[in-house]
Amino acid sequence: MKITQNDNSDVILSQKAYAQYMLSRFNMSHCISLLTPLPPRILLSMDDCLAIPQEINKMKSTPYCEALGLLMWLQVAMHPNLSFTVNILSCFSHNPGKPYWNTLKHALVYVKGTIDYGITYRGGVSLNLVGYVDSDYAGCKVSQTSFSHISTNCSTIHTVLKPAQSP
Lesser CB count within 10 Å: N end or C end of the chain? Predict the structure, then answer.
């Protein structure tokens, strides 16, 4: 994590080096970025999990859990906008099928487009309570339940996920 402070007492956090490592680890450094962390209208369910032993063995050689773990760290440390995506993909990490792997790669390609983003804490700004909610409204095909995520923040965050600017 790169932490810088400018003359205005703003503190800027960036994970560009980590994101570059993650993309190079999965040979995605030169991919074309995407605008969303999940494909539009995607519905993943247990029906997409693998059932045939040969497919399960083939998928074991795919670094799904490693990629998900790297994405999870990025989400926790710098990109709260990936929370919903990580939540969805984590539900199927025990037996991911090809649709899950493709969705995870989609999220990695999204990271490529946000590689210069960071969080800026503005100095001298009063505290604000901000909340965000995300849900997919009955997105589970089996149980018709919704995946949701609520995020609240009480801090001096003024700019979240904007291209990081060095002092």
Answer: C
